[in-house]
UniProtKB/TrEMBL annotation:
Residues 5-225 form the ABC transporter domain. This is ABC transporter ATP-binding protein. It comes from the Bacteria. The keyword ATP-binding applies. Gene3D superfamilies: P-loop containing nucleotide triphosphate hydrolases. InterPro entries: AAA+_ATPase, ABC_transporter-like_ATP-bd, ABC_transporter-like_CS, ABC_Transporter_VariousFunc, P-loop_NTPase. GO terms for molecular function: ATP binding; ATP hydrolysis activity. Keywords: ATP-binding, Nucleotide-binding, Transport. It comes from Rheinheimera riviphila. The lineage of its organism: Bacteria, Pseudomonadati, Pseudomonadota, Gammaproteobacteria, Chromatiales.
Length: 282
């Protein structure tokens, strides 16, 4: 996508986003409630027309994808789009009929291990059962691009783990691109290799997860700092008794040596993705 803009009621929810994905990428899409994650995913899928810029999949604008290209996309929406009046089995049969690459063995395996009650009418299924069924539909037609909008919100911890294991297997094949939004940041940290961090309509960070984890750190000084070293990009300062902690971004490991010249006891703490997300959204 290039310079992508989406505006609702004169508010630019997406304000000029540029990013690219390729096979093997597993992108964790992070952002607070209302940051624009679903809007971005829907626009990538061609469900909404950009107000500026463009999104292309396989060199085709998303809004002009052919039926054949759409066959290569798997999507788990935040709110499922299952047909209430059908049973699970009927829904699977109907969906698979229109998919050229349907993998029945994958479907049987997931339905069995997730104990999806296929004979139950979808309107009577629990939220978690519906979410599992949506995931089966998205995963088992072997899409080249898999887009998951909060796919685990209603899953119990066991099902969540099984789902993540499936996703890790799919990601390991390096044949697909996955974009995954979730508020369970620790899950994303286990499977993602790329991060898009949406904030105020822009990508506050986009790039490899490892780069993000190296660039946002906490520096512990066992003394009260009178001033913040000018070479640091400060995110937050905390004072606890006589020690000072600085959370910084744009950290370069090479900076440590020069800081140690003035502060020999300085310590660097690397953070989890969840902590980084919280720090950058404070
Ligand atoms: N069709 C629409 N019309 C008007 N405003 C919209 C529309 N779709 C989204 N918005 C607004 O755009 C903003 C982003 O919404 P979006 O659903 O993309 O956020 P999100 O990051 O997915 O949030 P959450 O984490 O709560 O699911 C919100 O302020 C929302 O009210």
């Amino acid at each position: 996508m290039d310079a992508l803009v989406r505006t609702f009621n004169q508010h630019k929810v997406l304000n000029g986003l540029t990013a690219h994905i390729k096979r093997g990428d597993v992108v964790a899409l992070l952002g607070k409630n209302g940051a624009g994650k679903s809007t971005l995913l829907h626009t990538i899928l061609g469900f909404g027309v950009p107000d500026g810029g463009e999104v292309k999949l396989w060199q085709t604008p998303s809004i002009a994808l052919t039926q054949q290209q759409k066959q290569h996309i798997g999507f788990v929406p935040q709110q499922d789009e299952l047909l209430e009046q059908l049973t699970g089995a009927e829904q699977l049969k109907l969906f698979s009929k229109f998919r050229t690459h349907w993998d029945q063995a994958c479907c049987d395996r997931l339905v069995d291990s997730w104990k999806i009650p296929l004979n139950t009418r979808i309107s009577k299924m629990s939220l978690g059962e519906r979410q599992k069924l949506s995931i089966v539909l998205a995963l088992c037609h072997q899409p080249e691009l898999l887009i998951l909008d909060e796919p685990v919100a209603s899953l119990d911890p066991m099902a969540r783990r099984q789902f993540l294991a499936e996703l890790i297997d799919i990601a390991a094949e390096q044949q697909r691109a996955i974009i995954f939004s979730s508020h369970i940041v620790s899950d994303m940290e286990r499977i993602a290799n790329q991060v898009w961090l949406l904030k105020n309509g822009e990508l506050a960070f986009q790039g490899p997860l490892d780069d993000l984890k190296e660039s946002v750190v906490r520096l512990h000084f066992p003394q009260t700092l009178t001033e913040v070293p000018t070479e640091l990009t400060l995110v937050r300062r905390q004072q606890l008794g006589n020690s000072t902690t600085l959370t910084v971004q744009d950290w370069q490991p090479g900076q440590l040596a020069s800081l140690q010249a003035s502060y020999p006891a300085i310590q660097v703490e690397y953070l989890s993705l969840e902590e980084i997300f919280l720090e950058l959204n404070r």
